[in-house]
Write a structure and sequence with these properties.
Blueprint: H1 4-15, E1 19-22, E2 30-35, E3 40-46, E4 51-55, H2 60-74, E5 81-87, E6 96-103, H3 108-114, H4 127-137, E7 143-148, H5 150-160, H6 163-182, E8 187-190, H7 197-205, E9 212-214, H8 222-245, H9 259-273, H10 287-292
Parallel strand pairs: 5-8, 8-9
Antiparallel strand pairs: 1-2, 2-3, 3-4, 5-6, 6-7
């Protein structure tokens, strides 16, 4: 039984000068016997769950193997990588936020211990704490967050005419300082457009390395997962700030599906600040938003 994560574990074991050989047969998994010339430990890998279990006496080898398994159990972190993700793309209210995070094998264990993973799998109440953990673990030059406020978003969307074109430019602009500071050329992000060409062109124009794009990249890359947490946490902060600015009953509502709540918030803002005031809080290209403003 073999897969990319198990192969990465074997390579990481060999890179540390340890030896491994197949262990006993286990249900639904693969067992490795790992030796360092003095001690031995077992590693059971279960591919369906992406889970590893390390056994044996409490020795330096076992503890080091547990740390290694922690890094590669959920994500394969074999080299430094810059991950990119966004939040707010499909939301009526709030900005468009893009985050870039550089993660290397040395920094990965702390992120995994903190519970960093795809932001969609994290309860909303934990997002701020996880974002704080990322900020604590990853130095400022190795991360960046770009916030395009609604007013600027609406102006730039009117020129670009397409959300994916705008997003590609923001991805490149957010990645640029992290690439410059870290020198890391491996870049990964979610494929947000139907094809890869748009983002590749934006990165080429910016003089950046070609990014690797994959569907659901936040589940494949720890760097992308960390970026998704930073972007989502900042987007939530902005919804709260804009809600207070508008005198609303709390953060402005997220998403684009709860039409009664979204329309009530939009009408509240229009009543307070006039139709033109809505551009400071909402993305105006959504059809229901345009309808509220009497536009087609």
């Amino acid at each position: 039984m073999d897969d990319a994560r198990l192969a990465a574990l074997r390579r990481a074991i060999e890179a540390r000068g340890w030896r491994w050989r197949p262990g006993k047969s286990i249900p639904y998994g693969t067992q490795l016997l790992v030796e360092d010339g003095r001690d031995q430990a077992t590693l059971n890998y279960y591919p369906k769950q992406g889970r590893t279990v390390v056994g044996g006496r409490d020795t330096p080898l076992r503890r080091a193997l547990e740390e290694l398994a922690l890094v590669t159990a959920g994500f394969v972190v074999e080299h430094a990588e810059i991950g990119l993700d966004e939040s707010g793309k499909g939301d009526w209210f709030g900005p468009l936020v893009v985050a870039a995070v550089c993660v290397d094998p040395a920094g990965a264990p702390a992120l995994l211990r903190a519970g960093v993973r795809d932001s969609k799998a994290i309860a909303g109440g934990r997002m701020a704490d996880l974002a704080a953990a990322i900020v604590h673990c990853i130095p400022a030059p190795a991360r960046a967050v770009t916030v395009l406020e609604p007013l600027a978003y609406n102006e730039r969307y009117a020129v670009a005419g397409n959300i994916n074109a705008l997003l590609a430019d923001l991805y490149a602009a957010t990645a640029a300082p992290v690439v410059a500071e870290t020198g890391v050329s491996a870049i990964m992000c979610d494929q947000f457009a139907q094809g890869a060409a748009r983002l590749e062109k934006a990165f080429a124009v910016a003089g950046l390395p070609r990014p690797r794009q994959a569907h659901h990249a936040e589940g494949l890359s720890l760097a992308v997962a960390a970026a998704s947490v930073l972007a989502t946490a900042r987007f939530q902060e902005e919804l709260a700030r804009l809600g207070a600015l508008a005198g609303w009953e709390g953060p402005l509502p997220a998403g684009a599906t709860d039409l009664p709540l979204l329309e009530r918030a939009a009408r509240w803002i229009i009543a307070r600040e006039g139709p033109e005031g809505l551009a400071r809080y909402a993305k105006l290209h959504f059809r229901p938003v345009r309808a509220l403003l009497g536009e087609r």
